[in-house]
Specification:
- The structure is a single chain.
- This protein is of the alpha+beta class.
- It contains 10 helices and 8 strands.
- It starts with a helix and ends with a strand.
Length: about 280
């Protein structure tokens, strides 16, 4: 009886340990190489690309050990854009060929300009991984190209409108955890009057629609993928720092005409979501 209880205890401890590993594991974004470079430029972060495959045992070892290490996870989530590319997928294979990857696992580090600054075709443990990450986490590797889409935010004027009220529970279900910063959004919120005419766009500037503000980089990646797949419009990322905290603004656009912008706002409203008109 005691042996049975001991066995149950060991199984429970093993289950809790496995769950803890999954909880703290690196959350890799699933993007193509081109998409990853664009995101890194927008975030102004270096990019770590992990080329792997399901059949690659060293890759699996790194997932269970290196990328489950809390220090590695924390450092990557705060300082890098981390992307895993499956070389068995069509796009993944094309990206592998474009980068000249011959061995798995392969780890490539790009700067925010999309240039490879280092390559590791070997298995790295957590300590080695941290050393590599710190080595290439430099101001120079965070400089984005001038063409990168870093969108300045503007205050609302009386001509701006936005979709009113989204239920907090609906957004929580969408994001997993509500990360919107009320101080940024609520101060700019105006109800949409259904009888109000479609706002005119300034002829000299294009307009976009802000669909969220997040402090979590992982949520940013998930939400960009959600909005682009759901509403078929490119979503840009603009980062701003306030009191030492970085906030990521997700902005759909640009919109060429007022009608396009209103159509997007209507689509958000039908899904119970909100949008804030901003200048790009």
């Amino acid at each position: 009886m005691k042996k049975l209880s001991l066995l149950k205890g060991l199984l429970l401890a093993l289950s809790l340990f496995t769950a803890s590993q999954k909880l703290h594991a690196v959350q890799f974004a699933r993007l193509s190489l081109a998409e990853a470079k664009a995101r890194a430029a927008q975030l102004q972060r270096p990019l770590l690309v992990h080329f792997a495959a399901n059949w690659c045992l060293p890759c699996q070892w790194m997932d269970k050990n290196t990328f489950a290490d809390p220090e590695v996870t924390s450092y990557l989530s705060q300082q890098y854009l981390a992307v895993k590319i499956d070389v068995d997928e069509v796009q993944g294979y094309a990206d592998k060929e474009a980068c000249g990857v011959k061995y798995l696992p392969s780890l490539l580090i790009f700067n925010a300009r999309g240039i490879v600054v280092s390559r590791y075709e070997e298995t790295l443990d957590a300590a080695q991984m941290l050393e590599v990450l710190r080595k290439y986490d430099t101001p120079a590797n965070r400089v984005a190209p001038r063409t990168a889409s870093t969108v300045p935010m503007v205050k609302l004027t009386t001509s701006n409108t936005m979709i009113a009220q989204i239920g907090e529970h609906e957004m929580a279900a969408l994001a997993g955890e509500v990360e919107d910063d009320p101080a940024h959004l609520d101060a700019q919120r105006r109800p949409l009057n259904s009888s109000t005419a479609t706002p005119a766009l300034p002829t000299s500037r294009k307009m976009g629609i802000q669909v969220g503000v997040y402090s979590s980089y992982e949520n940013v990646i998930r939400q960009v993928q959600y909005f682009e797949k759901k509403f078929y419009k490119t979503v840009h990322i603009s980062s701003q720092t306030n009191n030492g905290q970085t906030y990521y603004h997700l902005i759909a656009g640009p919109f060429e005409t007022p009608a396009q912008m209103q159509t997007y706002l209507n689509a958000l409203q039908r899904d119970g979501l909100k949008g804030l008109i901003v200048t790009l």
